[in-house]
Amino acid sequence: SKEDIRDAAREMIQGTPMRESLVLPKEIDVKKFWATGGSTHAAENKVRTKKSEDSLLRFQLNNGIELILNQRNDLPLISMQMASSAGIRIENEKNSGIGNLLSEVWEKGPKGWSAEKTSSFMESRAARMDTFSGRNSAGLSATSLTQHLDDVLPLALDTFFNPALEEKEFNHARELVLEDIKTL
């Protein structure tokens, strides 16, 4: 049911440590970006930073989330991946496949947004948002031109932490999954 999917999403997102990863172009000052609200959750989290041996910048938030930044100079793009332990780790016989079903509806946007509004918003900014579910993880990725970072990053984070899971989208995804199972 839609409630089972929402419960699974809450358990996955809030119940396990998560990593966020962003690839930023050189013109963005990473420390300033994070300190000035690069994340909708930045104000409530103190950040500890350390430079790792592999030249990635790692931020450890008070809530256990690790943010890894990798700055590149070749393209004016931002790419972010957010993931959490999921899949077989949280599924059992009763809710097997729930992570896969979640990934079908997760990318449709945050609560209060329709799938059409999210799609139009992302398309107008030449941005993309995708979700995935595997044996041990589930997550969301988003890619955008750097000039749209201030619009796309908050939407991606809100979608990750607070997915809409609209009834219409959920029912459509469930029908597709059931059809796939029947063809096996």
Structural class computed from helices and strand pairing: alpha+beta
What is the radius of gyration computed over CA atoms, rounded to a whole number of angstroms? Answer: 17 Å
Largest sheet: 7 strands, mixed
**Strand order of the biggest β-sheet:** 2-3-4-1-5-7-6
Number of helices: 6
In angstroms, what separates the terminal alpha carbons? 22 Å
Order of helices and strands: HEHEEEEHHEEHH
Annotation, overall tally of beta strands: 7
Low-confidence stretches: 15-19, 36-49
Beta percentage is 25-35%
Q: What is the molecular shape?
A: globular
- Proportion of helical residues: 25-40%
> What's the average pLDDT?
75
Overview of this protein structure:
The structure is a single chain. With 184 residues, the protein is an alpha+beta fold. It has helices at 2-15, 30-35, 98-106, 115-124, 149-161, 167-183; strands at 18-25, 47-51, 57-61, 66-72, 77-85, 128-133, 137-145. Strands 2-3-4-1-5-7-6 form a seven-stranded mixed beta sheet, covered by helices on one side. Helix 3 packs across helix 6 (167-183). The chain is globular. The two termini are 22 Å apart. The relative contact order is 0.18.
